[in-house]
Design brief:
Layout: H1 3-26, H2 36-47, E1 56-58, E2 61-63, H3 68-80, H4 85-96, H5 98-111, H6 113-124, H7 127-131, H8 139-155, H9 158-172, H10 181-190, H11 195-223, H12 233-240, H13 256-261, H14 267-284, H15 286-300, E3 304-305, E4 313-314, H16 316-332, H17 337-352, H18 357-360, H19 364-381, H20 384-403, H21 405-418
Antiparallel strand pairs: 1-2, 3-4
């Protein structure tokens, strides 16, 4: 492929992705809700010059959030006016469209151009990813940073690995959940055992921590202790093991432990107290904890979306791609490692914290890449008629599930109830 053709392909992919994202942006009229509200308050505080110490209030107490997304929103507000959500959504649409380019390039390097076009198309029409551009949530920014970091890792030179570490650092300042991933990746390089692998591992971990260092220093000056990203870790961890009604995650729990924690003035001590109490509850109720882990696993892989799409709608594209994603994992062999790493990492974090379709959203581009490969391999390994029959069967099954969504949900709920999970 000539460089000119390569450039035009990427321009066309980006423009088409922007057009898809502009439709929900132009029609965005829903009020802010859930996590969008503290992001709005934090961003306005930064834009007004109150700095990173202007943190959100939960139950009359302060909890800091990772700062990069509020800083990003505050920057857009400074350019286009405070509270101009349309401007934020428009910039996010331009930025989020790059995910399609990153997916195309990464898939092209792994599986070839045709599979890359299919993977980019799947990301292009992935409506939760598209709709994330018109939400005041960090997922759009975070997904671009994470995908870009792994593309640079795939190129695998010292320079690109250093840039990957910087992007992972920015990812960590967007969502603190990513904090351990660069060190695990660096460990993978070091375990190669050769001098080059060790140097690349050190470069990755070093550039990641270098990017986080200003925030770590700032946090030490404010909290007088080591706080890598934010002080909400204990709060999130406690809520993860104390869901509403024992099964509904994502709600702010207010019980005796949380009431006592809210009387602790120090944010870091409050977070440490909640972590301690959570571990005590885990040791005291191991079977209940196991039940919660199974629920978190199911929440993470659920084909229903009650956060981005809303109202528990069926994620049709995810349901279509999922069986081909599983086949892609099996057939990709040595090429699957880089794509599976973020998927497995986020699954592991979901078992510790709250797992949901929104939590899964940043790794869906990696799933689309493996799904595109799995679909193409069916046509390569078997006859074309068999490939079309199987593809049609998967589409028909998903149409049936989407058409009879409420009975399907009721069947799942009944089955989980009989298993003692619901």
């Amino acid at each position: 492929m000539t460089r000119k053709r390569w450039i035009w392909i990427h321009v066309a992919i980006w423009l088409l992705a922007v057009l898809f994202r502009l439709w929900p942006v132009l029609h965005a009229s829903r009020p802010l809700q859930g996590d969008e509200l503290p992001y709005q308050g934090f961003s306005v505080s930064i834009e007004e010059g109150k700095g990173l110490r202007a943190e959100e209030r939960l139950y009359s107490k302060m909890y800091s959030r990772p700062p990069l997304y509020p800083i990003f929103v505050a920057f857009v507000y400074r350019l286009f006016g405070t509270g101009n959500l349309k401007a934020v959504y428009f910039v996010q649409a331009l930025l989020g469209a790059l995910t399609c380019n990153l997916v195309y390039e990464m898939t092209r390097r792994l599986f070839g151009s045709f599979t890359a076009f299919l993977a980019a198309l799947l990301v292009l029409v992935n409506f939760p990813l598209v709709a994330s551009s018109s939400r005041l949530l960090s997922e759009c920014l975070f997904t671009v940073l994470l995908t870009g970091a792994f593309l640079l890792l795939q190129i695998d030179t010292r320079g690109t690995i250093a840039c990957s570490g910087l992007l992972l650092g920015l990812s960590g300042m967007t969502k603190g959940i990513i904090f351990f991933l660069p060190f695990l990746l660096a460990g993978g390089f070091i375990l190669r055992g050769r001098k080059e692998g060790i140097s690349k591992g050190v470069i990755l971990a070093g550039t990641f921590f270098l990017m986080l260092l200003p925030l770590v220093v700032r946090n030490h000056l404010v909290y007088h202790t080591f706080v890598p990203v934010s002080t909400q870790g204990g709060y999130v961890f406690y809520n993860s093991y104390h869901p509403l009604n024992g099964k509904i995650f994502g709600y702010h729990i207010q019980d005796e432990t949380m009431s006592f924690a809210n009387r602790i003035e120090s944010e870091t001590e409050r977070s440490a107290y909640l972590v301690q109490r959570t571990f005590e509850d885990i040791r005291r109720n191991p079977l209940y904890t196991l039940r919660l882990e199974v629920l978190k696993f199911l929440y993470f892989w659920a084909p229903f979306d009650w956060e981005i799409l809303g109202q528990g709608r069926y994620h049709f594209l995810y349901g279509f791609v999922f069986p081909f994603f599983l086949l892609g994992i099996f057939w990709a062999k040595e090429r699957r490692f880089l794509l599976l790493t973020p998927i497995l990492y986020f699954q592991g974090m979901a078992l510790l914290f709250y797992g949901s379709p929104r939590f899964r959203l940043p790794i869906e581009p990696f799933m689309m890449m493996l799904g595109a490969f799995g679909l193409m391999e069916i046509f390569r390994r078997f006859s074309r008629p068999f490939g079309w029959v199987l593809t049609t069967a998967v589409i028909t099954t998903n149409i049936g599930l989407a058409s009879f969504l409420n009975p399907f949900k009721q069947l799942l709920a009944t089955s989980l109830h009989h298993m003692g999970l619901w």
